[in-house]
Amino acid sequence: MTTATLGSAVRTSFQRWQFWLLLLVLGLLSVLLVQAMAEEDMDRYGLENTSLDGYAALAQVLEDQGVNLHPAASAQTAEELLQEHPEAALVVLSRGDVPNEQFLAQLREVSDRPVVLLDESAQLVNALFLESEVSYAGAHAGGGPVEDATLAAGGQCSIPGAVTAQDLRAPGALFYSEDPGCFTGFEDGSGPAQALVETPAGLLFGAPEAFSNHDIAQAGNAALALSLFGEREELIWYTPMGLDAMGAEEWASPTDLLPGWVIPLAWWLLLCALVLMLVMGRRPGPVVGEPLPVRVPGAETAEGRGRMYQSANAVEASAQTLRSAHLIRLARLLRLGAAPEESSILEAAARQVHRDPAEVSALVARRPRNNAELVGYAQALASLEQETEHAVLTAHTRARAAPARPENAEATPKTQPDSQQGKNSSND
Questions:
Q1: How many whole angstroms separate alpha carbon 65 and alpha carbon 24?
Q2: Can you spell out the DSSP letters for 285-344?
Q3: How far is Cα 211 from Cα 223, in angstroms, rounded to an integer?
Q4: Residue 153 · residue 162 · CB < 8 Å
Q5: Predicted pLDDT of residue 147
Q6: What are the tens digits of pLDDT across the range 149-159?
Q7: Closest by alpha carbon to 90, among 66, 112, 56, 116?
Q8: CA atoms 34, 35, 36, 40: torsion sign
Q9: pLDDT at residue 243 in the model
Q10: d(C-alpha 116, C-alpha 121), whole Å
Q11: What are the residues facing 196 on neighbouring strands?
């Protein structure tokens, strides 16, 4: 099988099954969409995220300890939960975003409610505290196999949960604070840099990675988590989003509602589309200028129409075109005039090839249903035309080979020989 034949077969099969293939693709897309909509929380530090960077293990342990978790994805939801559960503890987990100014003002107010602030960067610290109260000291690359990766609570630590945990192993941020804290990473002229410090707004912890599914079992991370979050039966878990930092009069950009990977993916797809357009544009070659009118040979036109019918899988239209073309050529071959009837052409062709007119009519009236039957139909019409042409040429050859007879052969009497004529004249 040649490459052209293989390509034609693949193209024909695709055209035959393109509806079902399209239906299959749409079905797969629908399944993927349903799975994506029903997918569990995949956010980093998400309470239902079961991957390594999720908090699903922590949430399950807290629920087993009798703690009711109330997730809040916006400042408004968090405020409503705080009013609904006045005795509940509050956790503010910052993943780079900070609450709005109104909620920050509420955090600065001293209250009896336990508050835990989780922040591994400087955004929440800079928005919530003055530099004289709490400031960002740097990052701690904990979690390694060496002893230096583990931070001890320290003798100056007065936070019961940290004293119970004794040590911490996880990467995160370190902070300077006026009050002594726990888990000292280093100490310089500004004082000890610690991962857990007491602030006017509550406990500030700079290593939320310690409570992830990957690191919760390291060192004293689990004990510290139970001490920080298991104090009250009701726990409000607030994760600020980008829209929380906007005022009520401000409009949100549509890009703020999209994940971070959408914009790079859109630019990448645009680049791929431009490259594809360039490749497809250069594939046929440069544009060739030709003065009009352009004369196109009939064979090219017929081939182009045939390829168009093949691409559109127009079997019925192709069969009708073949039928009309063969009838026209048969009429010319049999010299039946300018516009003979189809039945007259078929009867004359049947007489010429000595075949049953009904058989010839049935052959021409066939309706192919696919390309394979169309090929057989075209071959049958071509065979009929060849037989007719051969019969006509044979009849013409025989007519030319026969001797010509004079038109008045019967009316002319036979003349007698000269000797007989002389004998008759002497007798007279």
A1: 47
A2: -SPPP-PSSPP--HHHHHHHHHHHHHHTT-HHHHHHHHHHHHHHHHHHHHT--SS--HHH
A3: 10
A4: yes
A5: 45
A6: 788 888 889 88
A7: 116
A8: positive
A9: 55
A10: 15
A11: 182, 205
Distance separating alpha carbons of residues 318 and 371, to the nearest angstrom: 10
The residues of the chain scoring below 50 in pLDDT are 1-4, 39, 143-147, 247-250, 409-428
pLDDT of residue 143: 46
Q: Give the pLDDT of residue 293.
A: 67
8-state DSSP, 414: P
Write out pLDDT tens, residues 2-18: 444 666 677 777 777 77
∠ CA 107-110-113, nearest 5°, is 80
Place of tokens 């010299």: 335
Q: How far apart are CA 129 and CA 177, in angstroms?
A: 10
d(CA 225, CA 41): 21
Six-digit token string for 86: 């006045």
- For 371-389, letters b (16+ CB in 10 Å) and e give beebeebbeebeebbeebb
Q: Residue 146 has what pLDDT?
A: 40
Instruction: Write the CA distances from 131 to 99, 185, 188, integer angstroms.
Output: 19, 19, 17
Residue with tokens 């006017």: 200
Q: Count Cβ atoms below 10 Å from residue 318 Cβ, excluding itself.
A: 21
- Cβ–Cβ < 8 Å for 237, 71: yes
Whole-number pLDDT of residue 318: 87
The encoded tokens of residue 396 equal: 């013409």
In degrees and rounded to multiples of 5, residue 9 shows phi and psi of -65, -40
What pLDDT score was predicted for residue 1? 43
